[in-house]
């Protein structure tokens, strides 16, 4: 018996087994379920936030028009984001009957397009409207000293910047990697099936 093993030869002879179709559907189902839960919870939190903001508006009766415009911008940002994000819900439902591989792959690619629109265009609009609304709202309540204005607006701007430049891109990248990885697995399986 020889102890000389030719790893290069073994590597070249290695046949890549395609992942099981049921395993891929299970992964896709898990991803969709996570996205569904995340979307529903986020929508609930945003709607509750809008309700609290409306309650504050009614209770405190702001005097300046800038405060009222700020509140309207924040509420508009929230409800427009909830509306657009809710349009992804039909793509997150699990199919009762398993579609064929091509149809499922098309559905996943449509889901990725919707996610991308929400993560880029809609998130940009949301952040811009939210920031404008918050800054306009704060104008009435921030004491009119240079130190107070600098600190209040500086801390708020720092928080928005942290979200915009660090937290948002990190979350987007993580979600895109999950979706793209799943789509790549389905495409690999489809390619291996068509080559046979």
Topology record:
Layout: H1 7-13, H2 21-60, H3 65-86, H4 89-92, H5 101-141, H6 146-195
> How far is it from the N-terminal to the C-terminal residue, by CA?
37 Å
Coarse shape: elongated
Extended strand count:
0
Task: List SSEs in N-to-C order.
Answer: HHHHHH
Task: Describe, in plain words, how this protein is organized in 3D.
The protein has about 200 residues and is mostly helical. It has one domain. The chain contains six helices and no strands. It has helices at about 5-15, 20-60, 65-85, 90, 100-140, 145-195. Helix 2 (about 20-60) packs antiparallel against helix 6 and helix 5 (about 100-140) packs antiparallel against helix 6 (about 145-195). It starts with 6 loop residues before the first helix and ends with a helix. About 10% of the residues are buried. The mean pLDDT is about 85.
Structure characteristics:
6 helices; mainly alpha; 196 residues; single chain
Tell me briefly what this model is.
The protein is mainly alpha-helical and 196 residues long. 84% of the residues lie in helices and 0% in strands.
């Amino acid at each position: 018996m020889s102890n000389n093993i030719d790893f290069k030869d073994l590597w070249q002879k290695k046949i890549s087994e395609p992942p099981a179709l049921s395993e891929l559907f299970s992964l896709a189902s898990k991803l969709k379920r996570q996205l569904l839960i995340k979307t529903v919870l986020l929508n609930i939190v945003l709607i509750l936030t809008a309700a609290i903001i409306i309650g504050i508006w009614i209770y405190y009766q702001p005097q300046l028009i800038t405060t009222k415009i700020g509140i309207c911008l924040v509420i508009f940002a929230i409800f427009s984001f909830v509306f657009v994000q809710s349009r992804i819900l039909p793509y997150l439902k699990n199919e009762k009957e398993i579609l064929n591989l091509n149809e499922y792959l098309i559905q996943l690619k449509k889901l990725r397009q919707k996610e991308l629109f929400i993560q880029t265009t809609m998130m940009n609009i949301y952040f811009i409207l939210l920031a404008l609304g918050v800054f306009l709202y704060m104008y009435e309540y921030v004491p009119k000293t240079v130190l107070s204005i600098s600190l209040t607006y500086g801390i708020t701007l720092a928080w928005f910047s942290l979200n915009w430049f660090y937290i948002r891109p990190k979350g987007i990248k993580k979600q895109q990697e999950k979706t793209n990885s799943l789509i790549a697995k389905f495409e690999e399986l489809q390619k291996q099936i068509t080559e046979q």
